[in-house]
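Colleagues,

For the teaching module next term, I've prepared a clean inverse folding example: a structure given as tokens, and then the sequence designed for it. I'd like students to try predicting residues themselves before seeing the answer, so please don't circulate the second half yet.
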């Protein structure tokens, strides 16, 4: 009969909770400013460019915001010597942030952060989805309005 491996005892520390809360707050603040920037750029660009390009640009900007947020977590992991290099730290942070998971683990004294990064990733992706949905809905409404205006004009022209 094979033995089940036993994990070392994990004790939650106030330091870990504080770091986790600080990283979540930083991530959400960055995301808030990022989403405001996306909306602001989209509003200015929509008046200059019609079509789907402003929505696509918003998608690119949202992705950049997410990747920057992941970088904050990766830098923290590097600072705390949780990983040997930036590549592994970023890979781990991105996989946890997207809730894909990773073959790597944090040191035992920072295990709580693995769940916290996944939770904040879900929150920010939901927020981003809401912003992108709003922009896509506005684009669709403009297209429908434009179509109906063209139809009305065509009907008036044919009546004359």
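(Answer key — instructors only)
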């Amino acid at each position: 009969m094979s033995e089940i491996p036993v994990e070392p005892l994990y004790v939650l520390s106030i330091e870990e909770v504080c770091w986790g809360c600080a990283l979540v707050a930083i991530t959400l603040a960055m995301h808030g400013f990022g989403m405001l920037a996306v909306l602001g750029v989209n509003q200015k660009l929509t008046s200059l460019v019609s079509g789907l390009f402003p929505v696509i640009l918003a998608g690119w900007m949202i992705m950049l915001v997410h990747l920057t947020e992941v970088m904050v977590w990766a830098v923290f992991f590097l600072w705390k010597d949780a990983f040997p290099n930036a590549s592994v730290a970023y890979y781990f942070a991105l996989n946890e942030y997207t809730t894909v998971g990773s073959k790597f683990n944090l040191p035992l004294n920072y295990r709580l952060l693995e769940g916290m990064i996944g939770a904040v990733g879900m929150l920010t992706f939901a927020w981003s989805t809401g912003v992108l949905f709003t922009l896509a809905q506005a684009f669709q409404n403009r297209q429908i309005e434009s179509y109906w205006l063209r139809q009305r004009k065509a009907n008036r022209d044919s009546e004359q």
